[in-house]
Structure formats: structure tokens, C-alpha cells
DNA sequence: CATATTTTGTTGTAATTGCAACAAAAATTT
DNA sequence: AAATTTTTGTTGCAATTACAACAAAATATG
């Protein structure tokens, strides 16, 4: 069976590295763009869900959000019906950066798909979604302490 | 155009997280498996090439290799013809772990590809290699300080 | 409805990561 | 052959990352 894991790892690290370098111009430090886009697209989201979405540890998400708040990109608001959770919203400053993040993503996406036919790109996108669904199940399970046997 | 970047990022982080948790049983700390597999498969490789292959910063690779050496998974040897480089080789201890890394990778790969037809998986693998080639060019260029315009 | 479990959040600690700045050897250019 | 540039390596920082361990609120179970 062809190995797709390493390719995915290499692509992801390269893309992340590029984004981190490019978003420094907008005063975002390493990794913050990951959180900020998702908060802009899902205003009112809570930390826990953010971590699940991005696939990072809960405590990493907590600290990333903390820093975004300290730098006024987002605010955390108490929920009227639930004392435990704190809903996260972009500030104006945060919202202003959103289009730049999307532009960057679109550009990288376009570069990534160079030389692929429309059909190949379509199959790729559909396949990746399936792969993500498959892997996220194992991730959640392993994160909770379950041991995989192989 | 369909966005494939986020899916790739999510998959990569989830896979990396799983691997890091699972390889702790073999005394490898975070990220070390990335280097060790490649050293086993390319004995005599130098740090610089490792970093390029894995797509991490040169200094990160340097420190990961340093730690692998300290823990006797690899050794660095002077090159007879070139005083600058130090060739990296797995020790017996390092080589012994290699099959476990491969087993884990194969298992994750198989999970990842569940529900994809052979044809879809084949197209996916080919497409990812193309994407990686596309992205690594930008990565190398951005890393060297070049600004992308978009 | 009381108890147990899950969800959501935090803080302490140890580690990896990457940028900047430096050095020396090698390769290239003039 | 000398001077310049590129390659390869290192060390000092400052930051992100995640595991562990804890707490409190919410939900589920008996």
C-alpha cells in the first residue's frame, strides 16, 4: 500500500512554516492563524471545540487563545446559560486580519494544486476529507488513553 | 476552488499526535520518530538534508539529532573527505526501533485509507506527491526570505 | 435527588521549535 | 589564486507545545 502519511506530514509542515512567516507581518505569532480563522468563522465557539477542530491539545488551545486575547484579536465572553464555558469572538482587530489569512490560504491552495487536473483535485479533496474522518476517530481515542493494537 | 490545506493540516497534526503518544513506549520523545526513520533509511545523511526532507528548520533538526545521539539512537561520524559535514548513522538501538515505526505507520496508513477505493487511493497518493513538490518549492523560497505576492 | 461521570477550564513543568547571529569549511566567481 | 558566496554547523534566546494534575460546573446514572 502506498504511503500517504509522510507526504501529508511534509506538506503540512511546509505550509505551516510558510504561513507562520507570512503572518508575522500581521503580528500573529506561530500558530495563531489556525485559531483566529476558525474563531472568525465560528464566532461564539469555545476552547474545547477549537482544540478538537484544529487537532491540538486542549491546553495548547487554551494558551493560544489566551495570547490572542491578550493581544486583542479576540475576546472571551461569559455565557448567560452556562457558567462553565466562555464563548470566543473576534474583535474588530481580529476580524480585520481574516481576509488576509484567507488570501494567503487561497494562494497556497492554488500553488498546491498546480499541475493537477480539475478531476484529480476534486478526487483529492474528497479523499482527504475521508482520510481526516478516519484519522480523527483514532486521534480522539488515542488521546483519551486507548491503545491501538497492530 | 476546494480547500485542501486545512484537511491536510488537521490530518497531519492528528497523525503526529498519535505517533508521539505511541512512540513514547519506545523512549522516543516528541518528533524524534520523524528523524529516526529517515536516518535508518538514509544512513550517512547529514543534518541539513534531514531538515530539507522533513521540512523543519535547520536548527530544530540539529537539536533533534543531538538528542537522538545523546540517547544512543544514532551516531555522528566525521567524513573523511569533508571536514564540515558529519554523517549520521543509526546505532543498533536505533535500528531496532525502525520496524516498530514502520508498523505504526502502516497501521495508520491503512486506517487513513479506509473507505477509499484502490483507484481513489492511488490518485490520492500521486496527487499528494505533486502537491508536496509544488509546496516545497515555495517553502524553500520563503524560508530564504523571498516574499510571495498575492 | 443524590451520586458518579463527563465536560470545560486552569496552572505548573519540561520539552521541542525556530529565529538571529555567529563561525568555519567548501564551492563558486572574478 | 584571491575574493565572494554558499553550505553546514552551532549557540543563545523566546516562544509554543503538551502532559499531569487539579478544580468546578454540567450532565448522566442509579
TrEMBL record, chains A, B:
The lineage of its organism: Bacteria, Bacillati, Bacillota, Bacilli, Bacillales. The keyword Ribonucleoprotein does not apply. Keywords: DNA-binding, Transcription, Transcription regulation. It holds the Pfam family MarR. This is MarR family transcriptional regulator. InterPro entries: HTH_MarR-typ (IPR000835), WH-like_DNA-bd_sf (IPR036388), WH_DNA-bd_sf (IPR036390). PANTHER family: MARR FAMILY REGULATORY PROTEIN, TRANSCRIPTIONAL REGULATOR, MARR. Residues 1-133 form the HTH marR-type domain. It comes from Jeotgalibacillus salarius. One of its GO terms (molecular function) is DNA-binding transcription factor activity.
Amino acid at each position: 500500500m502506498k504511503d500517504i502519511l509522510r507526504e501529508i506530514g511534509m506538506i503540512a509542515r511546509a505550509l505551516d512554516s510558510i504561513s507562520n512567516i507570512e503572518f508575522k507581518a500581521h503580528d500573529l505569532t506561530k500558530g495563531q492563524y489556525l485559531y483566529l480563522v476558525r474563531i472568525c468563522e465560528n464566532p461564539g465557539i469555545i476552547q474545547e471545540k477549537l482544540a478538537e477542530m484544529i487537532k491540538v491539545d486542549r491546553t495548547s488551545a487554551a494558551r493560544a487563545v489566551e495570547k490572542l486575547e491578550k493581544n486583542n484579536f479576540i475576546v472571551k465572553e461569559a455565557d448567560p446559560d452556562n457558567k462553565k464555558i466562555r464563548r470566543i469572538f473576534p474583535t474588530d482587530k481580529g476580524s480585520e486580519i481574516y481576509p488576509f489569512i484567507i488570501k494567503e490560504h487561497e494562494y497556497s491552495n492554488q500553488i498546491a494544486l498546480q499541475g493537477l487536473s480539475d478531476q484529480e483535485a476534486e478526487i483529492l479533496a474528497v479523499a482527504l476529507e475521508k482520510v481526516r474522518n478516519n484519522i480523527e476517530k483514532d486521534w480522539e481515542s488515542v488521546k483519551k488513553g486507548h491503545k491501538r493494537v497492530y
